[in-house]
Amino acid sequence: MAKAKRVIPFYKDPSVFSVNVLKPNAAGFPYDEAGRKKIVSLNGLWKFKFLESVLNIPEGYYLPENTNDDFGTIEVPSEWQIKGYGVPEYTNVRYPYALESKRKSKIPYIHEEIAPCGLYVTEFDYAPSDDNVLLDFGGINQAGEVYLNGFFVGYSEDTFDSVTYDITKYLKPGKNKLAVTVYQFTTSSYLEDQDMWRLAGIFRDVNLVYVSKLSFADVHNRTDLRDDFSTGVLNSKITLRAMGADSPAAKLIIRFKAPNGDLIGETKADIPPMKDGSERAVEYAKTVKEVLAWSGEFPNLYTLDLILAVGAKVLDRRILKVGFRNVRIVPYNDETGRGPFILLNGRPYMIKGVNRHEFHPDYGHAVPLSITEKDIVLCKQNNINSIRTSHYPNSRGFYDLCDRYGILVMCENNLETHGLAKHIPSSDPMWIAPCVYRITNMVQSYKNHPSIVFWSLGNESGTGRAFDVMRQTVLGIDNSRPIHYEPDTRLKASDLYSEMYTLQTKMKKIGKNKQVIHCRALWNNMMGSVMKPSYYKDRPFILCEYAHCMGNSLGNFGDYMDDFKRYDRLHGGYIWDFADQSIKRVRDGVTEWTYGGDWGD
């Protein structure tokens, strides 16, 4: 039961960024026969101890016999700086002091004496069940080392993607002790140099998930529109898995429902017995005439209801929303002189978007879903039709809301290395592996959302083979969406020509497909690279950031809108940003809206 002494702790070892994490999937949470989610929330008050250094972690705090009487309490989900532990730190290009960034030969290196951590402990009751039990974390900032009843469960370094562990074999009837060591800084923190508040904690939902031993391992829904966009085509790959025991013969029932709830198709398939540890894929196809397509104006959602049963007993059920839409890039037409275009359901799509950090002055990154919904409603009311999730995947509920309200999404990978982008990730295999881990987590988790129209490989992280590998990883999972990456100087990894804060004079040159200098940035000594007309002749151009409006700015915005309308190639962009990142502080009865430097950081 005792923790084995490691030669190198996980948080200091760049080769370790994921231990015992289950493969991400897009099947959603399981439901029972009555349509109730088979989950138990572990949100609430947890025992908590803040430590200013990882060197001070007490031995065996996670063991059942340790009562942790010297711990305080903290609300989960939250970030501990928001709750009064430690100091919020805001930085953009510069890395936090706990991460060595000046002596390049030492990178990656954690200054452990100033690297904080938080120890989390809670208890939950467990009644023996025929189901497997999974432990799902929606997000841990920055890494979590998980123990149950004294046993090591797993570890992951990826702040903004969910992680799931199989805890079935560690459970016991009655009370169970769950402990998580949360590290604010790890070697993977070098991949998270976003322009934002550097906070820490278990900041998204924590759930126990009950899954039958024969269950849906994954569902991948691919939709398209044909016959002048009047016919919808759905192709689903449904993956079943036996986990924990051999499974008997079963029945798969597939029900497909219209947006108004009417049943428009039902299919049944026999599933032969399966051996423990095996998987089986079932293909399902559905054609819908006179389809109600999904768009920003009309976000029509159909329902795919999947039931797995043995006799009259329902083992597993998943309920997924399906939107029929088509997004593609059309190259420049030499005969007509028109294009290139981004087409959504056959029509040119103008991005009237914003960059949005998932952040709130009262909650940090632990934004309640009710506030996220208000943000999306505010976007709709102000003719904002698209959100770039700068610069990491958002919480699960965000994508569900965008599906429902009709907000188109550029879903961005949790990757930015701004201050060290000359070196990280570049073409270094040490960094390529965790980059692939992150992009895989994102795409596998959110591939079924119709609102997502672009995948983004990350932000301000230089160039190198890492981006070619990530592109191929994305295409190996989902090839139905264009891929975006702004620093790509030869448009090998990116399907879009993208830039941030492009000058007005240059906008017109790009609109006319003239030679320009692309992406003057730190990683190329502000020299940029020549973007020849042949490189981007067939690529639509977007501004992934523009009209910087933190504080008092947003000048000549109308000039940009005029250019978007004048040139086919220019397809709009994402304003920086939706709302300032500020933390609310009340001192002596006075409310302050604090920014970087206001906390002595």
Short description:
This protein is mainly beta and 601 residues long.
What is the number of domains?
3
Q: Give the helix tally.
A: 7
Q: Give the overall shape.
A: globular
**Which regions contain 5 or more consecutive residues with pLDDT less than 50?**
none
Count of distinct strands:
37
Distance between the termini: 40 Å
Give a topology summary.
Layout: E1 18-19, E2 39-41, E3 44-51, E4 72-76, E5 89-91, E6 117-126, E7 132-137, E8 140-141, E9 143-148, E10 151-157, E11 163-166, E12 174-183, E13 196-198, E14 201-202, E15 206-211, E16 214-226, E17 231-242, E18 250-257, E19 263-271, E20 279-289, E21 302-310, E22 313-322, E23 327-330, E24 341-344, E25 347-348, E26 351-355, H1 369-381, E27 386-388, H2 396-405, E28 408-412, H3 429-446, E29 452-456, H4 465-477, E30 483-484, E31 497-500, H5 504-511, E32 516-518, E33 529-531, H6 533-536, E34 541-546, H7 557-566, E35 570-575, E36 583-587, E37 590-594
Helix pairs in contact: 1-2, 3-4, 5-7
Give a written overview of the molecule.
The chain is mainly beta and 601 residues long. It has three domains: 202 residues, Galactose-binding domain-like (Jelly Rolls), CATH 2.60.120; 109 residues, Immunoglobulin-like; 200 residues, TIM Barrel (Alpha-Beta Barrel). The protein contains seven helices and 37 strands. The strands form ten sheets. The chain has an eight-stranded parallel beta sheet. It has a seven-stranded antiparallel beta sheet with strand order 1-10-9-12-6-3-4, with no helix packed on it. It has a four-stranded antiparallel beta sheet with strand order 2-15-7-11, with no helix packed on it. Helix 1 links the parallel strand 26 and strand 27. Helix 3 runs parallel beside helix 4 and helix 5 runs parallel beside helix 7. The longest helix has 18 residues. The chain is globular. The mean pLDDT is 96.
